[in-house]
Structures
1.
Amino acid sequence: MINGKKVEALVPLRGGSKSIARKNIKLIAGKPLCEWVLSALLDVEGIDGVSVSTEDEEIAQIAQAIDPHIHIINRPKELATDEASTESVMLHFAEQVDFDILITAQATSPLTTSQDIKQGLDTFFAGGFDSLLTGVREKRFYWTKNDRETAPVNYNYKKRPRRQDFDGWIMENGAFYITSRSILLKEKCRLGGKIGLLEMSSNTGIEIDDPGEWKVVETLLIEQKKGTLFRDIGEIKLLIVDVDGTLTDAGMYYSSDGESLKKFNTRDAKGLELIQKEGMMVSLMTSEDSEIVKARARKLKIKHTYTGVKDKMAMLEKLCKELNIQMSEIAYIGDDLNDRTCIESVGLGACPADASKEVKKIAKYICKGEGGKGAVREFCEILLNGKKTNP
């Protein structure tokens, strides 16, 4: 509730897509496209519920896997065609769910953050608006052309303004809309009454409609994620590394006499060496009681090595007390369910590209490299770059 008003959020996600097949659930920067905006909505205080409207069973399952609290609205097939309007989906939602204020967000705008949505709500309520749209400012000169003439739309070409003297125009970016229930039902439109506007950053002007835009947005998402990571990294004092599936490839190797073996990556080792040279502590933690791991730790001069750990979270809490550090000052990289609680609890949790789905959902950083194949080195470089950015 915000100001006594029930606020609901809706993300329309249909299964069909002409330009990019299965676009709404296709992975982008390590997550399904729809997860970016759904996660942003879930993080905004005051939103009473987040719903997905879809006719597609797989999309429904993925949305529920992102967060079981997401409500699934079964969309009639006639509202899932190319011709069906977003308003028709909003009105169908209004028949199913009670609300005073509705936020309709588009999955094709994954650069939308929880802060953007919060600012939109603040603007909506502070201005006493009935509806609100989002847009970006463009300082471009526009023309129109038809069979009879070519004419400028937004400037006088005889008095061409300098860029710094030109206010530009606001382009609707379609990131999200805020609509009161009364306006939606009266106007049958997402906008009406007293209309407000939230101006967003210029990079949010890109909506994903073709493969070229997909690549551009993915690059921006990765950079955006790194920017968030770099802010977190400034506080990190300790890196904890899981072994099997993270520092190794999770393979089971045996010699001819049945002795177990482990395969390590020298590049990962170099990353851990560089981290320690920069003054960050490193710890290895594994549930297996392995002499091989102990030997590897000695080789890498890693003092804090724990093998045979059955409860990693309990060991993590013990380590915090021993080293007099906070959970927020720890980075942790792991790949499986026994790492999940630790990854959720520390300041910066990461996982290899081939980690379990459950771990990928909650990791702040998903490496491009797989376990034992450069993931740890990659994460070390992220930490090192972040320390340089936030010394």
2.
Amino acid sequence: MKRTVILAVVAVVAIGLAFAGYAAYEKRALRAQLADAVAAASDRLGPTLAIDVNEPPAGLAGKLDADVMLTEVALQKIRSFAARRDPPLAEAADGYVASVLEVLRRQAGAAQYRAQFIDDRKALAAHMAAAGARSDSWGAEAIRLRKRVDDGYFGYQLAVNSLGNMLAGLADARRKLLEQMPSAKVLAETDIALARERSITAAAAAKLELENARRLAGPA
């Protein structure tokens, strides 16, 4: 009888140790998966973080669109992980990658609106330069082009301001993640801050461009 009890106790202890060992393994695996996802997100945003959105390089829009798609997939993958072993870390990693995704989206939007704003300003300038050859429809076309410039500026300004807000959110998400995983490969705090400053500068520069375009076009 005593031997049976001892064997039962040993079996219970062995099962408990095995369960604890498996739980620890699952937690380590989760941390490794989240660390990889965080590092990949940082690597995607890193090269575009230093770009001046007022002067986007050729091919930027295509790269950003691809990075947005890849980061969306990565975020969904994070959310499919069994996060019950470390909920605070899973939540922090989710927040960081989601913030990277939102910054990439705002960068893509800013690049698109910037290109449109530049094209519209050029079209308006070319039209006003041809004032000497006015036709009956010249005035109506000038009004239409000025409205396109105004609309393009509004879209760009909204995208750039939103980009600045998302960068502030990324800085906060970065801090929360490092509290849970100090070794995580995250973007440098100074790089995020400088990118936010550039977005503010870009918004101010675009406002001046709009004012110059309006002066060129004359009263609405």
3.
Amino acid sequence: MTRPHRQDAPHAVLWDMDGTLVDTEPAWIAAEFALAEVHGGSWSEEHALSLVGNDLMTSARYIREHMGIDLPHEQIVDELLAQVVDAVRREVPWRPGARELLLGHVERGIPAALVTMSYRRFAQAVIDALPEDTFAAIVVGDEVDNGKPHPEPYLAAAALLGTDPAHCLAIEDSATGAASAEAAGCTVLVVPNHVEVPTSPRRVFRPDLAGLEVAELTAMMRP
């Protein structure tokens, strides 16, 4: 039995960043391989893809163990961030249709929040490439106690916007991020990128965001 669509527009759209708004995963993967080369470790594409959607300290612990490098977790994060921030400052790799949809729904009065497990200094490189005050709320990985897949990031974003997560549409590309948003009570628009994402009654799937109209977001909302 198909569950009926909600008839009200989302009160807010909560955006994941890496892989959803911008395609920075290749930059992260390149930075991980560079880290392994500089410090005499070993790395693989399989290891890299297993980190998609994780908060950075979780990734750093995984990297230290599986890359075989004897570095503090904080140093691993700092070295990765330095490389990726530099790449994004040179050119922001927007995902197809993402920037247009973001600016379109904000212009129509549906507020946006950025919900990313990247740290603020990296998120700022993307925020700076958008019109001022595009995001009404920003939740970043170094300012929450529990990263995705815990619901805290999305619960925090909804609270900052003063709305119920059940009335929010989250946009995600990873299983980790989708689990976080769904656990918070959001409807999740999943746009898979580098990893597969399981289906769920509260998840709507599209191959990309190109050509997606703001008016279409209403039909995606789940009760």
